[in-house]
């Protein structure tokens, strides 16, 4: 194992640890405000991070970055990382997404358990605390119920250059706001009729501090709390509370939340001042999100691809979702390797897709067994080889891992080769089969091409060659004839039929959603095709097993459609980079 690259978040954690910044922290084994935590023991976790997905879609590569970062740092510094569902928005959230997220975090190789703690949390479990905190802010004069319409509130927020204007409800008595908040909770007011706002500063240069909304009314059923609540906290209010209740030490967000940090601190300070939250409080830090060329990662856009039938589903092998990447043949190790290699930075950039593929090649090269497959078959007849005869050949299962041994298959008179490995009239520098040329049939004999057979339309339907008997690989005569071409083959009498799905990039443009571009305009119409291939025979192919088909690339047996009897493969990546031009 190599030491992970040092980045600013590591430096920050190491400084905090050196200063004993979180040494006084207490943890009762369950999230809670000061009175719960006070009852706890000194926190056994040196740091606590969290991965807080909103269960409103499937995880994608961007989330993998956040998962690897948060769980990875917790592991490296012997701390805990919580998996927390940020389910404070009733309308778009579903249990189906919760289950998939749990699955995928495990699949990536991470666990939220720390010692005896389970550390799987739902923000919706804190609705009661959040509601109490809202009342506490009102009673301290830090929040008020505003009865302006959403449009009025927006209009009075001001702009970057213009200060905001105070709401006419801003100075209403705390008791009145408290009573109204209770009525809001009791369902006495319709959606949009009033909100709870923080009372901070309508003239603040940071627009996020101009009396941000804390609670809004939504008469909607929530996937966990049902109709128990009809008011829901805003994300920006809920998030710092979730972190504090769980005793998080380092809350890592993407850069777009940088301007929210003063509000994050404001909320926690106000409540800590009243002894409702225990110090030390969590701190928010920001890092640049992961952007990759040739893909989109916004959940909304991914949903459009699925809903519009542009892909076969969330787990379509062309999707940058983790379920899609898994089906495409990406391994957890390759995704972790990719995320580690990118490190963490403070400035936005777009990473080349080829780096993701390279991480997969680097992971699979030493792990994937080799086989030969012929994707576009044409018959090669060895005219001087006896009919009804065959002989064994052998090849390494993995040339980097001699200990895994050899594979064995048969050579015979009729073979399948790639159509592209024969040319009647060879272009320059073509070293494969053409009349008069000699090539090696990999792991078998050198053959000399003698010609071909064509159908009535002039299409080549069969290639003919003669083998040179003393040249078999692994025998003393193997090097007696020098050849420049080395081609793969499958014995026609012994090959196994296999369906192979060839995937290519889903978008033709490297930045399909940059600026005001509509990403749907850049969909690659040829991103998928299926071929019937011939596969070297061998042990049954298990679903989700990874293979290198020699000369062709890395392939995975499809985890949904492949069976040992009828193998179906997805091309995960070619052997060489086809992305950078
Ligand atoms: P999207 O914008 O795709 O809908 P999101 O940020 O709304 O994603 P959440 O479920 O709220 O999705 O995200 C969970 C965590 O994953 C957050 O902490 C967020 O910062 C992080 N995350 C999401 N996308 C990326 C990304 N591209 N790079 C790094 N982290 C990301
Ligand atoms: Mg979000
Ligand atoms: Mg988002």
What's a quick, concise take on this entry?
This protein is α/β, with parallel strands linked by helices. It has a seven-stranded mixed sheet with strand order 14-27-28-29-25-26-15. The protein has a seven-stranded mixed sheet with strand order 23-20-21-22-16-19-24, with no helix packed on it. Strands 6-7-8-9 form a four-stranded antiparallel sheet.
What does this structure look like?
With 581 residues, this protein is an alpha/beta fold. Among the domains are: 128-232, Glutamyl-tRNA Synthetase, Domain 3 (Glutamyl-tRNA Synthetase, domain 3), CATH 3.90.800; 299-369 and 498-573, Ribosomal Protein L25, Chain P; 373-488, Ribosomal Protein L25, Chain P, CATH 2.40.240. Helix content is 24%, strand content 23%. Strands 14-27-28-29-25-26-15 form a 7-stranded mixed beta sheet. A 7-stranded mixed beta sheet has the order 23-20-21-22-16-19-24, with no helix packed on it. Strand 20 (438-441) and strand 21 form a beta hairpin. The mean pLDDT is 95. Bound molecules: adenosine-5'-triphosphate and magnesium ion (2 copies). Adenosine-5'-triphosphate binds at residues 52-54, 62-63, 65-66, 253-254, 289-290, 297-299. Residues 52-54, 62-63, 65-66, 253-254, 289-290, 297-299 line the site of adenosine-5'-triphosphate (ATP). Keywords: Aminoacyl-tRNA synthetase, ATP-binding, Cytoplasm, Ligase, Nucleotide-binding, Protein biosynthesis. Its EC number is 6.1.1.18.
């Amino acid at each position: 194992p190599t030491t992970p690259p040092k980045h600013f978040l590591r430096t920050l954690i190491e400084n905090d640890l050196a200063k004993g910044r979180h040494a006084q922290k207490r943890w009762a084994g369950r999230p809670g405000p000061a009175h719960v935590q006070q009852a706890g023991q000194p926190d056994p976790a040196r740091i606590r991070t969290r991965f807080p997905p909103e269960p409103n879609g499937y995880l994608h590569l961007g989330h993998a970055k956040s998962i690897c970062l948060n769980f990875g740092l917790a592991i490296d510094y012997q701390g805990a990382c919580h998996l927390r569902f940020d389910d404070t928005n009733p309308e778009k959230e579903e249990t189906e997404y919760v289950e998939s997220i749990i699955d995928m975090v495990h699949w990536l190789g991470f666990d939220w358990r720390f010692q005896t703690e389970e550390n799987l949390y739902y923000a919706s479990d804190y609705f009661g605390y959040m509601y109490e905190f809202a009342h506490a802010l009102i009673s301290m004069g830090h929040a008020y119920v505003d009865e302006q319409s959403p449009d009025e509130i927006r209009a009075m927020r001001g702009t970057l250059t213009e200060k905001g204007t105070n709401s006419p409800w801003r100075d209403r008595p705390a008791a009145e706001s408290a009573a109204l908040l209770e009525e809001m909770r009791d369902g006495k007011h319709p959606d949009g009729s009033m909100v709870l706002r923080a009372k901070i500063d309508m003239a603040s240069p940071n627009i996020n501090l101009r009396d941000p909304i804390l609670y809004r009314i939504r008469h909607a059923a929530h996937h966990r709390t049902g109709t128990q609540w009809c008011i829901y906290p805003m994300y920006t209010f809920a998030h710092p509370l979730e972190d504090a209740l769980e005793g998080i030490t380092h809350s890592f967000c993407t850069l777009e939340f940088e301007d929210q940090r003063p509000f994050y601190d404001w909320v926690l300070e106000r409540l800590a001042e009243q002894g409702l939250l225990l110090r030390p409080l969590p701190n928010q830090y920001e890092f640049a999100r992961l952007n990759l060329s040739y893909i989109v990662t916004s959940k909304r856009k991914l949903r459009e691809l699925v809903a519009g039938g542009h892909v076969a589903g969330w787990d379509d092998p062309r999707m940058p979702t983790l379920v899609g990447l898994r089906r495409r043949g990406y391994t957890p190790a390759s995704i972790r390797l990719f995320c580690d290699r990118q490190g963490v930075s403070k400035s936005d950039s777009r990473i080349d897709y080829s780096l993701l593929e390279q991480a997969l090649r680097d992971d699979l090269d030493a792990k994937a067994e080799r086989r030969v497959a012929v994707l576009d078959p044409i018959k090669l007849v060895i005219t001087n080889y006896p009919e009804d005869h065959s002989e064994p050949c052998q090849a390494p299962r993995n040339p980097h891992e001699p200990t895994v041994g050899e594979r064995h298959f048969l050579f015979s008179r009729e073979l399948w080769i790639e159509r592209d490995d024969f040319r009647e009239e060879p272009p320059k520098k073509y070293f494969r089969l053409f009349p008069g040329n000699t090539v090696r049939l990999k792991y078998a004999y050198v053959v000399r091409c003698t010609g071909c057979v064509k159908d009535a339309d002039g299409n080549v339907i069969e290639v003919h060659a003669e083998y040179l008997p003393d040249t078999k690989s692994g025998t003393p005569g193997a090097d007696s004839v020098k050849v420049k071409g080395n081609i793969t083959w499958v014995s026609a009498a012994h090959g196994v039929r296999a369906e192979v799905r060839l995937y290519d990039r889903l978008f033709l443009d490297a930045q399909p959603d940059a600026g005001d571009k509509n990403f749907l305009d850049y969909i690659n119409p040829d991103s998928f095709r299926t071929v019937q291939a011939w596969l070297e025979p061998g042990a049954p192919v298990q679903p989700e097993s990874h293979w290198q088909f020699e000369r062709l690339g890395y392939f995975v047996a499809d985890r949904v459609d492949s069976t040992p009897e009828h193998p179906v493969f997805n091309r995960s990546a070619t052997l060489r980079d086809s992305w950078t031009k």
